[in-house]
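REVIEWER CHECKLIST
Item 1: Sequence provided? yes
Item 2: Single chain? yes
Item 3: Sequence as submitted:
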Amino acid sequence: MIDIRSLPLVPKVILIAGFTIGIVSFILFLRYPIILILMKYSPQYREFIKRTLGAKKIKKTIMRKIIFVTGNPHKVREAGDILSHLGITLEQNNCGYPELQEDELEPIAGFGARWAADKLDYEVMVDDSGLFIEALGGFPGPYSAYVFDTLGNERILKLMEGETNRRAVFKCVIGYCRPGEEPYLFSGEVDGEIADEMRGNGGFGYDPIFAVSGVTFGEMGEEEKNGLSHRYAALTEFAQWLKKGQ
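Item 4: Structure as written out by the authors:
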């Protein structure tokens, strides 16, 4: 075995440097698990890494998790596609939350986000969406999920028989909250109309009867729909807020 203390200065420096590079390369090859563990349990090491690599590097390395409280996996997938570009992963949780009886989506989403954040003791997001049909006085609005489960699209079309005013708005409000804090709200909407019949097999919920420029969400491909949907608009606003370092 070589006694490193007996080596001349230059070979000693080369040997130490090579050993250090090897260790760093091994850590990088394992995609940072050792760094992540040390940063989680050692505040001193976390500060050292921040000074060495910089805050931006740390943000890129460590994925941030937000719990999405919903029973709808379609919403989770749609939101995940947008937020993943910010280094954010979503974990679905179907714990539910008490829904206020309100005429607007904002107070429902805000209350739900704060309730879920305190219950789970973690940062959460909720999605409250609604279809507002002008000829029906905004019905089903905030009660869209319940109405869809009980009546379905066919009965909505039945209510619209003979109606010439078929204008409708799809709205979405994203509620985000941390435990013990006040919620933040992000909204989006898209104007359209109620089709004369169900068309298309894509999407979910009211997608087969809600049309934009003559094409229902159910007829659109997932990428096309997500690019103009009410949920996409709300998630984009939420993502822009997160990018500011929130």
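Item 5: Key structural point noted by reviewer: The longest helix spans residues 9-29.
Item 6: Recommendation: ____
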